[in-house]
Amino acid sequence: MQKQQNAAHTSALLMNKTYTTTFKLKPCSEVVLTYYDKMSDQRDSIPPQKTKTITDRAAINRITSIVGHLPDKGDIMIKLGDASILETTFVYPDSAVYFTFYESKLKTPATSFYAPKHKEEQVLYEYLISLLNQ
Description:
6 strands, alpha+beta, 4 helices, 22% strand, single chain, 134 residues
């Protein structure tokens, strides 16, 4: 019964998540990774190709540490085609915030992208993909 209540609570938080305002995030109870092959799939409410919930404390701390080294503001705005999306959601007891990679390019809280790519951006993307594929 408790697992069902927790799942329902998490589901409600995910439906009301907001884009993060900073990459200086606090560790959370779980991180939800959601991958779409195409941006249009998400827009058209087509289920994601992969979803994974991370509850391992070490993995969450590593994600939080890497993302915390990234600046909140990028250098450029870019126009994207039907890019793949990796959405990373931090779930807290009373809220959920997320950030998104488009074709391995991280959209910052300021809604811009990095130019050139940050080392931590690539490290984070590769780590998240490895967790998603476990």
